[in-house]
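Encode chain A's predicted structure.
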Amino acid sequence: MKKLTDCKGDPLPIFGKGIVTHCDVEPGAVPFDSVWNLKVLMVSDLSTGSSDIPVPEAGQFYMIRSAKSGVLLGRPISVYMSRKAGEAAHIEFLILKKGKGTQELCALKKNDEVELIGPTGNSFPAPQKTDKVCIVGGGIGVAPVAGFASTLAPKSYDFFASFKSGSYGLEYIKANELTVTTDDGSVGVHGMLPAALTAQTLKEKGYTVLYACGPTPMLAYVQKICLEAGVQSYLSMEKNMACGVGACLGCTITTTEGNKRCCKDGPVFKGEILQFEPPKAKPVFGSARGNDGKIAEFEPDLSVNIAGIRFENPVIAASGTFGYGSEYSTIFDVNKLGGICSKGLTLLARPGNTGVRLVETPSGLINSIGLENPGIEHFIEYELPGMLALKPVTIANLSGSSIETYVDGAKLLDKTAVPMIELNISCPNVKAGGMGFGMDCELASTVTRAVREVTKKPLMVKLTPNAPDLIGIAMAVREAGADAISLVNTFQAMSIDLNTGRPVFDNIRAGFSGPAVKPIALRMVYDVLQAMNKLPESERIPVVGLGGISCWQDAVEFLMAGAAAIQVGTATFADPYTMIEIVKGLSDYMKQKGFKSIKEFRGLAQ
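Encoded structure for chain A:
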């Protein structure tokens, strides 16, 4: 099949398959393991079946992901080096290990398959014979400009490479003059790019054209000095992308010529047309960071207080996902958690729902358990002693089918040593009670007040995201005596059996949880806290956030939204160590940023 080309005759991007020929740590990058070298042999065009693969030009990139990827989108990675290999193309990338997508790419092994869309974007324009060329690379941005430099005659350009620490990606450089700068002074000139390259330098060296790729602040600086020195610049930009081919308009950047698509009109632009916006917010640091910018060594305090109860850390196992704590005790040390919410408890034992109970979906899980539990009296006699023997704070999750059963259950729990009750008015998997009480302000208020009257235990009310007025219900339970709120519980969902054409679950609707709900849950927690913060401080109650939290970064987002603590549920099924890793990740993050306690960054987003 004939290759498709644009009106200029240039080949359009293809969707192809590649085979990994090499994947290893890039020497010289600091910290170790932060940058990887990935080599791929692109062997076929999946859209046409052709094996005649175009070779990318310097400055172009690919949307790339593992064929076994767990991420939705490919990652835009600039080409480092490329060459023709028969009908196939040999492509080399430098990858900064950052998020889940790049972590997957750095974990590839020889002969693994990858999927690529590309080559996409434009390329660096060749200099004129009379030009004196300056090339600048910052951090991982060294890769595309190093690839471009390799297309030029040796000694026909000067190259400036700027890193925070160490250096890498320079093996193909054959510069007349190579200057390396590092922020920590570990290699070359001590300092960032301005320590070696200024407008005056451009003038003194007589450069007529400059090519650059790197962090946005560096590119803004390069644009500035080039304009001052009257030097033509070509800057390779970076933006988050979805399609990579110019269709979604998610990667537009502002220019003097209007919005431009970074993936299609770029990534290489004339420097003078770019409009760099100042950062909307500055990086935040805690009290352990001194005026000199250095962070003193310290051990962060992860403890939090909810309704007078101290938690060693803000990570709590969510109800319905962790049994009574002992179930996971042989897998990891559950005593490292801040708290454990019991399985949902009802006054009398419940057998739960009939039929299918679990359906896995992309990035989520639909469950129809139906609050199966042994009843509160059995819990008090048999399960509660084991929970109380553990170090994490025990929280009894109380549900019911009527106000009377809620009240009678609360009376029984009030006579025990359980530190806290989580009033569940949000379970979507029962026909009576549960979420029915959490959908209406008056009902939510009534059941909360009724339980409040029969127990002196701290009372945390668990809310449903399916409520038409979540903020109204949050305020209603607060006024009715709730000491804290936890949200969100699962979202109503369903699944259909393709063989029978009937709903999978006997109750038709079930509860959806998992990473897919996290952005929505975060927004809801943020909204409730925003409303809560409008009240006098003495009238506010803490909010515990949950919903799709699967890593420490998710936890930090909820805490920055204002959550007093977080609960983790479905993620434990995917990786039992999730909560332990979140605790460690929180501690490491606080050390890195200088936050001595959770309260130093809680609510920063409000």
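The mean pLDDT is 93.
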